[in-house]
Amino acid sequence: DVKVTQSSRYLVKRTGEKVFLECVQDMDHENMFWYRQDPGLGLRLIYFSYDVKMKEKGDIPEGYSVSREKKERFSLILESASTNQTSMYLCASSSRDSGEKLFFGSGTQLSVL
Amino acid sequence: GENVEQHPSTLSVQEGDSAVIKCTYSDSASNYFPWYKQELGKRPQLIIDIRSNVGEKKDQRIAVTLNKTAKHFSLHITETQPEDSAVYFCAARRGGFTGGGNKLTFGTGTQLKVEL
Description:
- The complex is a heterodimer.
- Chain A has strands at residues 4-6, 10-13, 19-25, 31-38, 42-49, 56-57, 65-70, 73-78, 87-94, 103-104, 108-112.
- By secondary structure, chain A is mainly beta.
- In chain A, strands 2, 4, 5, 6, 9, 10 and 11 form a 7-stranded mixed β-sheet that branches. In chain A, strands 1-3-8-7 form a 4-stranded antiparallel β-sheet, with no helix packed on it.
- Chain B is mainly beta.
- In chain B, 0% of the residues lie in helices and 57% in strands.
- Chain B has strands at residues 4-7, 10-14, 19-25, 30-38, 45-51, 56-59, 62-67, 72-77, 86-94, 104-106, 110-115.
- In chain B, a hairpin with a 6-residue loop joins β4 (30-38) and β5 (45-51).
- Chain B is globular and about 40 Å long.
- The chains are: A mainly beta, B mainly beta.
- Chains A and B meet through β5 of A and β4, β5, β9 and β10 of B.
């Protein structure tokens, strides 16, 4: 079974801090994604990557950056956290071979104070 | 870009009744439409999907219909059970599965509550 692991379930940071959210998948998936989930707004795509060192902006990339140095790991970086980045962050992966099904991690609830 | 609208935002049904959730999309080039279910405190999981060359797909108690002309698709759950209580998200994707092609746009979600 595919496993997508996010490093933290809950995270509390202060405004202005640099924040790293880590995601690791164990199924050799080419594609990896970062979404944020907010009540009433659904899942919104921040960034995605379809290969190592490749990245593309999603719908709401402002204030975020990403890094994909290895195929299994996709990191989301908040350069200077702000209170409006308080949210649930979901990582997902998918494979070209297994169709278009997204496998999600369990999420990181980030609170920026 | 693609815009997906989902209605209703909340839906309450009695156990055994049917539930219908509707979504509309804006990009006529969208060709893949999945539905994800997210139980409380858990990760979203794919429950059914449909492609633009098919009008309807069924899997036991759940079915999805697609009307390409009207650009809307719906999730139908029959004989609802308490374990169907969850948030349901529709999504749409444009284009092929090459490079960054697998970019889904999600709806805002429907909170389904099945009451005993």
